[in-house]
Amino acid sequence: MPAYERFRPKPYHSKISIFWWIKRKPYVLFIIRELTSIFVAIYAIILIIQIHAMAQGPDTWDALMISFSMPGSILLHVVILIFLLFHTFTWFKLAPKAMVLKIGKKRIPGSLIIAGNFIMWILLSAGIAWLVMSA
Amino acid sequence: MAEKVKIQVLRYIPEKDPDPFYQEYEVPFRKEWVILDALNYIKDEIDGSLSYRWSCRMGVCGSCGMMVNDIPVLTCETFLEKYLPGPVRIAPLNYFAVIRDLVVETDGFMEKVKRVKPWIIREEEKPAAEGEYLQTPDQLSEYKQYSMCINCMLCYAACPVVGLEPKFIGPAAIALAQRYNYDNRDEGQKMRDDVLLSDDGIYECTLVGECSVVCPKHVDPAGAIQRYKVTGATEWWTSVLLPFGKK
């Protein structure tokens, strides 16, 4: 350490509050986006419960369906749906950041990549809906 | 229109006070003034003890980055008019240690930049007699955007991960690494991977995305990091699926 260092005043290190994200909208949206993954996980668990009930037979399945039609359960599903939509929209919007696709020498514009994701989503959802409806 | 604007500057004078405090100044309003002009007015006319960095006054040197109303900006290209009627709050860049007033410690940042080996690495150097390494405009356009960085550190001040995980190598350094990774003359990506795919590297990034929003040169460091994540994941899968393949 050079000799003059001892005369150097101490730099100030600011502390970060756990509420650092509350002051600006982009940070709030980021935190909400991250929190939505909890709802993704909850819904994954609900799906596992459904598959488990299906494997147990019609009685367990029917009992589960009755519990799903309770107002509390419907409310939970609506809340999960809202967060899942937020999750999907925000992540689709970010997709072009990671995907740099080219046709020949021209870069495909980000809006097309976002649109592609939405189209795939709609097609897959329609496919699943068709499977469920025709069963 | 307002004739005077209140400017609140966060001051840190270590020999007088161990904590920073806001000091308010009143400057005349001029339509053509940027924030830096207001600071220069304070230093020249009101309080000569105010410390801050600046140099080129045209958004190239990257010295005058500060937090203005909580957003990191280059003060030489941010007009005072935007903040009318005021007051305008000016603070040193977030997440950096403050040396004095608005002057921050840059050593850590410089160290991070150095760690990504931001220069052209060749497995074997071509003898000078064989001439220069040629590059087409298309090859240049692959990385040009990432080469526009001026090391102003605004992206670090916008990135909460930099604040929460001080070891994170950070947006500018990763974008700079990508500038060389995408350069066709460079063969050093494997060496950079050691730093960037480590715990302090790209996977610390949670894609807040503000680094790209505040970047005055449109470098898009967030994009550079996400592209590196794709490369990293692809390399990992390749090594798992083809363990005896090309390293």
How would you explain this protein's 3D organization?
The complex is a heterodimer of chains A (135) and B (247). Chain A has helices at 25-56, 58-68, 71-98, 110-134; strands at residues 102-103, 106-107. Chain A has a two-stranded antiparallel sheet. In chain A, helix 1 (25-56) crosses helix 3 (71-98) and helix 3 (71-98) runs antiparallel to helix 4 (110-134). Chain A has four helices and two strands; from the N terminus they run αααββα. Chain A folds into two domains: 19-83, 3 helical TM bundles of succinate and fumarate reductases (Up-down Bundle), CATH 1.20.1300; 99-135, no CATH class. Chain A is flat, with a radius of gyration of 24 Å. Chain B has two domains: 4-104, Roll (Ubiquitin-like (UB roll)); 107-241, Fumarate Reductase Iron-sulfur Protein, Chain B, domain 2, CATH 1.10.1060. Helix content of chain B is 34%, strand content 13%. In chain B, the strands form two sheets. In chain B, strands 2-1-5-3-4 form a five-stranded mixed β-sheet. A two-stranded antiparallel sheet of chain B has the order 6-7. In chain B, strand 3 and strand 4 form a beta hairpin. Chain B starts with a strand and ends in a 6-residue tail after the last helix. Chain A binds chain B through residues 9-14, 16, 20-21, 23-24, 26-27, 30, 34, 94, 96-100, 105, and chain B through 12, 14-15, 18-20, 70-71, 94-95, 97-100, 105, 138, 160, 163-164, 206-210, 212-213, 220, 222-223, 226-227, 229-230.
